[in-house]
Design brief:
Length: about 280
């Protein structure tokens, strides 16, 4: 009982700290593990770092995003039951944000667990990514290891159901206003695409914190991620475009070609596609 109360207080504190985070992984970890795996301890706060990184990374860069036709944002949205919903959830360059939801029944067909280190032992859905993103993450982590950089995959795929239960828990325990301010509405979390992974170093103090950007791991990621098809999805200074605060840990797979253009020009995924609709 006490444990539950203090856990909730902790989750709230973390929640407050990661204001408007697109990830909200710390509180989600706690709430979902509490809700769905009552007999197991919360997965956060595990002793990490003792895990042996997986050997023999199967390399192979993700195939390009094949964004050759680059559809405009207007072309890929339709209203479903009153909710602006994307028409191309399976595309590697799909844009999901606060104005563009995934279909509530969308589950990627090619989810798989990348062979990379995680800072927890539970066999939970957040280990998963879509196939091309998983292979690219393995290649990215293998390169990091070669460069003496130790990375961990903190939180990947999140189902609509998980996000919904998280959101409803917020509403129940914190009220509607708090939920609306601090938690992504079900369908609008990019983690549901299976193309996003939150990454950290060994240091838990900078895990899912903006200070991660200043760590060797954070700096390495920002420099190298595009070569493996990933972008820093919520860059600094672009909050008004992405709808989210700076998240130097949130990687989004879009394919090498698209990632390199976005990262080298310092633009967002939204801007990349807005250009095509205005030209
Ligand atoms: Zn994230």
């Amino acid at each position: 009982m006490n444990k539950k109360v203090s856990g909730l207080a902790m989750a709230t504190a973390v929640c407050m700290a990661t204001l408007m985070s697109g990830c909200e992984a710390p509180s989600l970890d706690f709430l979902s593990s509490k809700k769905e795996q009552v007999s197991q301890p919360a997965s956060t706060g595990d002793s990490s770092g003792t895990e042996t990184p997986a050997e023999e990374p199967s390399t192979g860069h993700g195939q390009g995003s094949s964004a050759a036709h680059k559809p405009s944002m207007e072309e890929t949205i339709q209203t479903v039951e009153g909710i602006p919903t994307v028409t191309n959830p399976e595309e590697l360059y799909v844009i999901v944000n606060k104005q563009r939801a995934l279909p509530s029944d969308y589950v990627p067909s090619d989810l798989t667990e990348p062979n990379v280190p995680f800072p927890f032992k539970d066999k939970v859905e957040k280990r998963l990514l879509r196939e091309p993103a998983a292979r690219a993450l393995e290649a990215l982590f293998a390169q990091a290891k070669q460069d003496g950089i130790e990375l961990y995959a903190v939180s990947g795929y999140r189902s609509y159901k998980t996000q919904k239960s998280l959101y409803e828990t917020y509403v129940r325990t914190q009220g509607e206003a708090h939920a609306a301010a601090f938690s992504a509405v079900p369908g609008k979390s990019e983690h549901q695409t299976g193309l996003a992974m939150d990454v950290s170093g060994l240091d838990q103090a900078t895990r899912l914190e903006q200070t991660f950007a200043d760590t060797p791991e954070g700096m390495w990621l920002a420099e190298k991620c595009a070569a493996f098809g990933f972008i820093i999805r919520y860059p600094k200074g672009k909050e008004d475009i992405t709808g989210y605060a700076y998240e130097p840990w949130h990687l989004r797979y879009v394919g090498v070609e698209t990632a390199e253009e976005i990262m080298s020009r310092g633009i967002t995924l939204e801007e990349y596609f807005q250009e095509s609709s205005s030209s």
